[in-house]
Amino acid sequence: MYIEFHNVSKVIKGSTVLDGIDILFESGKVYGMRGKNGSGKTMLMRAICGFILPTSGTIDINGEILGKDITFPRSIGALIENPSFIDGDTGFQNLKVLASIQNTIEKRQIRYAMESVGLDPDDTRKYRKYSLGMKQKLGIACAVMENPDIILLDEPINAIDEKGVQQVQAIIQRAKDRGALVLVACHDRDELEFLSDEIYEIESGKIVGHEVLNKTRAEE
Amino acid sequence: MQAMLKIELSRAFQGKNFIITIILGSIITMVHFILYALPMAVPEGVTAQNYGGLYPPTVFNEWIGGQGLFLTATLYFFLLPLMAAIPYGDSYYLEKKSGYPKNIFLRTNKKYYFISKYIAVFLSAGTAITIPLLLNLLVTMAMFPSVLPDINAPVFMMNPSCMWSSMFYAAPYGYIFCYLLLDFVFSGLLATISLVAGLWMRHHLGVLLAPFLFFLIIYFTLNFMSIYFRFLNTLNPGAFLNPTPVIDGITLPPILLEMLLLFCATFFVYIKEGVRREVF
Question: Which of A24, A184, B170, B214 is at 20 to 30 A from B43, Cα to Cα?
Answer without folding.
Answer: B170
